[in-house]
Design a protein that fits this description.
Layout lengths: L6 H6 L7 H9 L6 H6 L9 H6 L28 E5 L2 E4 L27 H13 L5 E4 L9 H12 L6 E6 L1 H4 L6 H7 L5 E7 L8 H12 L4 E6 L8 H13 L2 E7 L14 H14 L7 E5 L6 E3 L5 E3 L4 E4 L5 E4 L2
Bound molecules: pyridoxal-5'-phosphate and iron/sulfur cluster.
Length: about 350
């Protein structure tokens, strides 16, 4: 079965019923479900399926709330050259390609990703690399997109080599959904292409539900871990997908078991047409508290908010310390309060 890319494909597979509002949803964000993802969907309970909810378009996407933004994290204002976002002094995002193996209905770059805008041209990529070369303060380059692992092994190798040749670039971080949603792409050639000679390479995988870590995805992660890459997990907190303590706990444990260290739990961004995915920060904090009492420290992500308007990410997890007039009060992982002098 090829990747499902049209409303007709989804109808034929019995994943949607015809609805003119879905045409509008498709215009705002392309559709793509890889065979691996389509196989994870529980068709007996489509309405509540956490995998279908992430990838199958919904009529809810046509509801745009006034607070929702076209550029929710303000990337546009921080882009000195095409393909680069430079918000923090020591690191840049480099977006070599705009296509993804799947299109997530909550995507925070939904105005930017999709077929049609494909990849940077050779000249654009060269200008982006020149920017990195000219800025000695750039310690880390974060390849994102789109999904950088949609570049073939040959182009990926050339890009990693070009970055590795810049002496001040100490770390290359690759953000990808490929190992989870299209694990067959993680071939020996791809793994070899990722190996830099000098810089440290970290791979962050995007995974939102424990069911996504099916045997093929776990095998792809094992190939990457065996090749020596440290793996990080990124999860978006999503209503109806993972906004309950049991699901989040199972996900974080499954990631750690697959040698992926949970890095960030992202509060959902104010993306147009994604109100049905949004959770309150209070709810996110309560979930983080539930994890703190129950799970290994290895399984604890940092709960972060990308402050709308391009102000960057900050942790918004629960506070365990309160400043009382006489002493600090510390809450422990079981909800009991203690005085701490100072
Ligand atoms: C998220 C992001 C980063 C990476 O932030 P970390 O906290 O280092 O993971 C870097 N640049 C931009 C513009 C970002 O949005
Ligand atoms: S893989 Fe990432 S960039 Fe691509 S659609 Fe999903 S969230 Fe957006």
């Amino acid at each position: 079965m090829p990747t499902l890319r049209t409303l007709e494909d989804l109808e034929r597979e019995g994943l949607i019923a015809p609805d003119p509002r879905l045409v509008e949803a498709e215009q705002a964000l392309a559709i793509a479900l890889t065979p691996d993802v389509a196989a994870l969907i529980d068709r007996r309970d489509l309405a509540n399926d956490p995998i279908a909810r992430q990838f199958v378009p919904s009529a809810c996407e046509t509801k745009i709330a006034p607070e929702e933004l076209a550029d929710p994290i303000g990337d546009e204002a921080r882009s000195p050259v095409k393909g680069i976002v430079h918000r923090y002094p020591d690191r840049v995002l480099l977006k070599p390609i705009h296509v993804c193996p799947v299109y997530c209905r909550f995507c925070f770059r939904r105005e930017k990703v999709g077929p049609g805008s494909e990849a940077l041209s050779a000249a654009e990529l060269e200008s982006a690399l020149a920017y990195i070369r000219d800025h000695a303060e750039i310690w880390e380059v974060i390849l994102t997109g789109g999904d950088p692992l949609m570049l073939g092994p040959r182009r990926l190798r050339a890009l990693i080599e070009a970055l590795d040749a810049i002496p001040h670039v100490a770390v290359i971080r690759v953000h990808s959904r490929v190992p989870i949603v299209d694990p067959g792409r993680v071939s020996d050639d791809l793994v070899a292409a990722l190996k830099p000679g000098r810089a440290g390479l970290w791979l962050a995988v995007h995974c939102n539900h424990p069911r996504e870590l099916a045997p093929p995805a776990r095998a792809a992660l094992a190939r990457l871990a065996d090749a020596g890459f440290p793996l990080l997990g990124q999860t978006v907190l999503l209503a109806g997908v993972n906004d309950d303590a049991d699901t989040l706990a199972a996900l974080m444990r499954a990631l750690v078991t697959a040698r992926v260290k949970p890095y960030y739990l992202h509060h959902p961004d104010l993306v147009r047409g994604t109100g049905h995915f949004r959770v309150s920060i209070e709810r996110g904090q309560a979930l983080m508290k539930a994890l703190r009492g129950r799970l290994s420290g290895l399984a604890q992500p940092t709960y972060v908010l990308d402050v709308p308007g391009g102000h960057g990410k900050v942790p918004v997890g629960p506070a365990y310390v309160r400043d009382d007039p006489d002493a600090l009060r510390v809450e422990d992982a079981f909800g009991k309060h203690h005085r701490y002098p100072g």
